Amino acid sequence: MIEDGGVRQSIRLGTYRGVPVGVHWSVAVIFGLVTWELADIVFPGSYVGTRATYWVAALVASVLFFGSLLAHEISHAVVARRHGVAVRSITLWLFGGVAQLGGEALTPGADFRIAAAGPGTSLLLVGVFAGVQGLMSAVGVHGLVAAVPSWLWKINLLLAAFNLIPAAPLDGGRILRSGLWMRSHDRNRATVTAARVGSGFGILLIAVGFALFVRYDNLYGLWPAFLGWFLFTAARAEEGVAKVRRGLQGLRVADVMTPHPPAIASSTTVAELVHHHLPWYRTDAVAVVGSTGWLEGILPLERINSVPPLSHADTRIGQLEIPIAAVPVARPEEPVEDLLQKMSEAGGSPAVVLDASNRLAGIVTAGNLDRTLHTAGSRSGARSGSQSGAGSVPG
Ligand SMILES: [Zn+2]
User: Fold this and answer.
1) pTM exceeds 0.70
2) What is the C-alpha separation between 211 and 214, in angstroms, rounded?
């Protein structure tokens, strides 16, 4: 799975070529459940063994299963990197693995290859484990030992098949998107369609989960329901982002920025800012300059709300600023879509716009983007129609 959302790593396992690889605490629960189910139900049901050998076989199978999940995610990451897309992290958690990408594929072909790499690797592992089982049987090894590769190729096949369901954020949803994107030359429209299939599939899983829960009074039904909820929320978020991008398609940074934003000395106190400067400006953020006039950072005005009124007189705006090193930089002629990407990578920080001689030309905040979308939405669809025909086809 490839996802941009909020799965956080709790335990760092290591790094793979600079990409942090870790597990979420919930993986311990799944590891325990899988091992227990194998040792207590699956293996004793079909093979002769002792309690100890069942547990050893179950542990080996679980470790190799989680290794398979990791291989699936790492293959997404490797192919993403090969196509110039940064990889933020790889995390194993409750519902398998997630590769979090720090950017987006530039072409439908790259989008397809990044998505297909995961299920492709899982299918490769199906071949490997089936081959091992075949070899074992050729040399006369049967029973519990052969049950491990046998279970592993089946679970990898299941993993590949599930991930190939064409519902974003599953890999199949990405593959669907790349196909629609290739056909329509419109990435955002393709993302919206794949995401809608994704939220529909999420709802279906929730319904199936509840039906299982009610029918069999079995807590396992809740697992598809939770997975469905996760897929539904991730798909809805993707659809939202794609719609924003669609609304901003074809616009340049200069079209949305607040030009000539106020530049205020970092030694200014919040009280001075509020009483002497802000009444004169309509802006969501001000530029903060040092004593030599250098741009030091940006102050989103909402940060002032975190300062208690009694401290306004002795809090300087330099203490509240986002330092310039952490602020995304844009050029006036740059497409807004590119800036959107940079702002989301910077955790939603406002951006500074510099002109050709690196002088401050403007500031772009989330508020600027909201207002642009709002005015674009209240006008007819004619403008956005002409914009998408203006040749801003990605790739
Ligand atoms: Zn995947």
Assistant:
1) yes
2) 5
SS3 57: helix
Q: Worst-scoring range by mean pLDDT, 68-82, 201-215, 299-313, 381-395?
A: 381-395
**What is the amino acid identity at position 247?**
G
Extract the tokens encoding 233: 């929320």
Structure tokens of 172? 């199949």
Cα 303 to Cα 77: distance, rounded to the nearest angstrom: 36
CA of 205 to the centre of ligand 1 (A): 18
User: Is residue 67 within a helix (H) or strand (E), and if so which, with residue range?
Assistant: helix 51-82
Beta pairing partners, 351: 364
User: How far away, in angstroms, is 4 Cα from ligand 1 center?
Assistant: 13
Q: How far is the CA of 25 from the centre of ligand 1 (A)?
A: 20
Tell me which DSSP letter residue 255 carries: H
Conformational region of residue 289, where left means phi above 0, alpha means psi within -120 to 50, and beta covers everything else: beta
Alpha-carbon dihedral 204, 205, 209, 211, rounded to 10 degrees: 20
Closest C-alpha among 394, 341, 3 to residue 168: 3
CB-based contact 128:19 (threshold 8 Å): no
Residue-wise pLDDT tens digits, 13-53: 888 877 888 888 878 888 888 899 899 888 888 888 888 99
Per-residue pLDDT tens for 165-183? 998 888 999 999 999 999 9
Q: Is the dihedral of CA 165, 114, 344, 4 positive or negative?
A: positive
Q: For this structure, is 239 an active site residue? A: no
Task: Provide the phi-psi class of 75: left if phi over 0, else alpha when psi is between -120 and 50, else beta.
Answer: alpha
